[in-house]
Amino acid sequence: MNGAESVIHIAKEERGYLEKASAKDLDSKTANAGSNNFTKYARDLYPALQGQPWCDMFVDWCFVKALGEISTRKLLGGFSAYTPTSARYFKDKGLWKSSPQPGDQIFFENAVRIYHTGIVERVTIDRVYTIEGNTSNAAGVVANGGGVWEKSYHLSYQGIAGYGRPDWSQVESPKYKVGWNHDENGWWYADTDHSYKKSVWEIINGHKYRFNQDGYALTDWHEIDGKWYYFESRPGHPLECALYTTDSEGVQNVGDF
Predict the structure, then answer these.
(1) What is each CA distance from 73 to 76, 86, 177, in whole angstroms?
(2) Which of 60, 102, 153, 257 has the least C-beta neighbours within 10 A?
(3) CA distance 228 to 222
(4) Distance CA 180, CA 105 (A)
């Protein structure tokens, strides 16, 4: 799957999710359903905004789930749960469009401002099909509707403000140098010329590393699945990012595996 297909795939998997009455059962699609705007999307990306309208949070979450935070920031221009700001990011980058393509972020406006958003799933000769968070299955735009639903609109629908088109070339399958690589965000490891390690533990040259969802090897202290681990954090150290272990006398050092 390419970048747009990956985002759409994630969005489709979320169909049927209902917002919660409280912070309980956030990962369940239907348990604890309510009207208080509690969602896993806010928990994972915007915890300080839990309980607020979440259509834009849903879009950002799908992108992050599919492509990681760093790639998402490049594609969307930044992170914002406020739809006018998200639209401005695209406009500032010259990526605001009047006709849709799959993977675009669709924006809707009322008499006051841009106020709702979603992801373009597909386009026909006269309709645009979307997946939206915080809406309902009723016809037309339903902001703050409480669920993740598929929707469709005529391409001439007056409530459509426009479309933000991610620059997918920034994430489409470049060729990598196999082995360790370094950039401004840290160290990452390409296992082939078109893939790299992410969200995984890996033993490389007898030492153990943990790669995050963006593919970068962790450094310093991190809690993983309820347990704490330390990874070499000194820049330039020959085993930077390697996992520490503790010997029988309590001495800590980079572990051998």
Answers:
(1) 5, 11, 24
(2) 257
(3) 6
(4) 34
**3 in Cβ contact with 75 (< 8 Å):** yes
Q: What is the DSSP letter of 242?
A: P
**What sign for the dihedral angle of Cα 113, 162, 84, 105?**
positive
Distance CA(202)–CA(218), nearest Å, equals 12
pLDDT of residue 120: 98
Adjacent-strand bridge partners of 187: 182
Please provide residue 245's backbone torsions phi and psi, each rounded to the nearest 5 degrees: -130, 170
Q: What pLDDT band is residue 173 in, cutting at 50, 70 and 90?
A: low
**pTM for the full model?**
0.70
Q: Are 199 and 217 spatial neighbours (Cβ–Cβ below 8 Å)?
A: no
Segment (H or E) for 66: helix 55-67
